[in-house]
Specification:
Number of strands: 8
Largest sheet: 4 strands, antiparallel
Strand content: 25-35%
Shape: elongated
Helix content: 40-55%
Distance between the termini: 64 Å
Strand order of the largest sheet: 1-2-3-4
Amino acid sequence: MGWTILIIAIVVIGGFIKWKISQGGKAENARLRGYGIVVDGDLIKRGGITLGPVLGAEAVLTDGTSRHTLTRVVTVVGAATKKTKAAVIVTLPNGRVHQQNIEGAGEIRRAQAWVVRFNAMAATQERESA
């Protein structure tokens, strides 16, 4: 029973760490967080380091690759599921590119919504500066 509690604790702590990393770094005026970056005011940051301005930036989500693993093919429940991977890519006008790999259908759906919010924020920034 002691090993079971230890394994559960490790899984929970690992999940928490993964979630915190996906939220991005700290920011005072965070307008959007996720996938390793933070939109802080008019700037995009990663881990407290400024990558560039929001103005002219764009986010995309790559097409996910799907595959059935052997265990998913063999099991009845797993036969209906696929292992899906994709990447969120943020390009900045100064040439910098930030990529965050994601995995799972639910995470990809959340990333789709995040990309739309990010691009809408960047478009709003362009209209305000014009």
